[in-house]
Amino acid sequence: MFAFQRYIRSPCVKLLGFNSICRVRRYLTTAQTTEALRPFIFAVHPDFFGQYPKERAANEKSLKLLFSYIDGLHQDQRTSATELTFYLRNQTPLNGQPVNKGVIFRSVKIGLSSLDIYTTVNGILASCDLSTAVIEQYKQENAEKEGEFPRPVEWHQSYYAYTGKKNPKDNVQRKQGRPEITLSYWLKKNIAEARKKLERSRPTKEEIVSLRRYLIGQLGLEDIVWESMWDSSMFCSCLKTMKDVCQQHWAIMQNLRGCTVVLGDLTRLTPSGRVVLSSQDVPHHWVSFISGLPKQREILPFIPPTEQALSTLLGGCSVKALEGPASTMTANSHYAALVMLIETMEKHKFVKRKGEKEEECLVLPEGITQGINIIIEGSTGEQYIDHNGDVHLMCNKSAPNIIRYLLSNAKNARELCNNHMSDVKEEALLISRCLEELELATLTRHLDVTPSQMIACCRKLEENPVRLGVVVRNLHVQIRHHYALRRDGDVCIPWNWKE
After folding, report:
1. In a domain? residue 226
2. Same domain, residue pair 170 and 308
3. Count of structural domains within the chain
4. Which helix (H) or strand (E) is 195 found in, with range?
5. How far, rounded to the nearest angstrom, does the alpha carbon of residue 42 sit from its chain's CA centroid?
6. Buried (b) or exposed (e) across 286-313, using 16+ Cβ within 10 A?
7. DSSP SS3 for 264
8. C-beta neighbour count of 399 within 10 angstroms
9. Residue 49: Cβ within 10 Å count
10. What string of pLDDT tens digits covers the 499 residues of the chain?
11. Domain range holding 312?
């Protein structure tokens, strides 16, 4: 199906030549890349998304682009940075936390910007919370071989699996056992480089403050928000482009007055009225979109009363749209989904009144969903409850299906929601204390990290700061699922770091 699959299915013999030796620190062989990516391919393969055409198509498209990018790296071709969206099947994550059985899959955005195959593959696995042990092992093996002339043929693991022969390396690898990385070790190794990068990025961050102040003042904006995985240099570049567009198309840019502008991944008008401009679009696309904003905004006044009407039909819940970087919902698509659900529920009431037996006469008691947030999504996928307690409903489901789901899960959703609200309060308190005690510039968590995971992390940081082994004063720290040092000096550490 895809170009890169020839590597997945091919007989795996690995011969390392002279060129490989010269670049062993930067490159993995094709076979090593294939083996390292197997868990990822298994999690996103389109064949497992037969019932979800939208997610299947997205994964198929993203895999084609990913394989093309990796092929380019292996062949030393010029590659351009991009960001891909994948849907991962619900599996037990690397951190060992129990998964939510109601969640069928989750979306993950993966940025491809490195010219180094090792860094690229490592980033893919880390972004999906998959083990990077195999790739770390390959890195160590390749480093040990540097300077040698490797004549022996090194067979791929699948050769031993197919033939039933014993891999002579298995016992050696078990005995060696790569030790886990501790937080203090990683910080000691990277703290100096982090401070250098932080200092180099200081002018860029100061320019961002200046540009934001200028644009907010000139255009009368509520705010300018950065919602992208790219670093501060990309944010600064987008702000400069926005300033140029403002100077060249002043009249059109007045359509943004009073808005919150989000520089993100997909240009659109959100259901809450925020204007999202894609950081990957050319200025002409921005101008074209902004010029049509007045027409698009006409739908916004109809959304709140329509949400309230659906809330009444669903038992008094709070109805809203998914917001933030994970959402692609537009104001128009959200309104259309609301109308579709209202028509579905109204039709069910009409059938019940007539006493017809085509539909089971289920009813949602008034107030049964009081205090529950219901997020309306598109027409693909299954209903589920996220870790915040928010209930995600698909607009194409039948009324009996929706009613049964809400009756069965209302109590669980309310408990999760209450726990989430309690966690958010405790999280804010712990972050404040960690900022003060460790003298950090910022302490944030990635969207993939839950408040409860953030709480566990902050408690460990607060217990004994001396354990860190280094002074982290004035650093920008983000809690994620893996270690990383960003180009602008931001430090990423896993929430379940080891002492």
Report:
1. no
2. no
3. 2
4. helix 183-219
5. 18
6. beebbeeeeebeebeeebeebbebbbeb
7. strand
8. 22
9. 22
10. 334 443 333 333 333 333 333 333 445 777 788 888 888 888 888 877 777 788 888 888 888 888 888 888 877 777 777 888 898 887 645 444 444 545 577 888 888 887 788 888 888 888 888 888 788 777 776 665 554 444 456 666 666 665 667 776 665 544 455 557 888 889 999 999 999 999 999 999 999 999 999 999 999 999 999 988 788 888 999 999 999 999 999 999 999 999 999 998 889 999 999 999 998 888 899 999 999 999 999 999 999 999 999 999 998 899 999 888 878 889 999 999 999 999 999 888 765 554 555 445 577 888 888 889 999 987 777 888 988 899 999 888 889 899 999 999 999 999 999 999 999 999 999 999 999 999 999 999 988 899 999 999 999 998 876 666 678 889 999 999 889 998 889 999 999 998 7
11. 300-420
Domain boundary residue among 178, 202, 221? 178
Q: Do 310 and 163 fall into the same domain?
A: no
- Burial, 195: exposed, middle or buried (Cβ in 10 Å; 0-12, 13-18, 19+)? middle
- Helices 183-219, 232-248: inter-axial angle, 10-degree rounding: 10
pTM over 0.85: no
Under DSSP, the state recorded for 285 is H
Among candidate residues 422, 418, 425, 424, the one with its CA nearest the CA of residue 390: 418
What is residue 112's three-state secondary structure?
Answer: strand
* DSSP-based three-state secondary structure for 266: coil
Could you tell me if residue 276 is inside a domain? no
- Inter-axis angle of helices 133-145 and 117-127, nearest 10: 160
- 304 and 158 belong to one structural domain: no
102 domain residue, yes or no: yes
**179 three-class SS:** coil
Residues 9 and 154 placed together within one structural domain of the fold: yes
Q: Last residue of some domain: 143, 162, 178?
A: 178
Instruction: Tell how strand 373-377 and strand 391-394 pair up.
Output: parallel
Residue 454 lies in a domain: no
CA-CA distance, 494 to 499, in Å (whole number)?
12
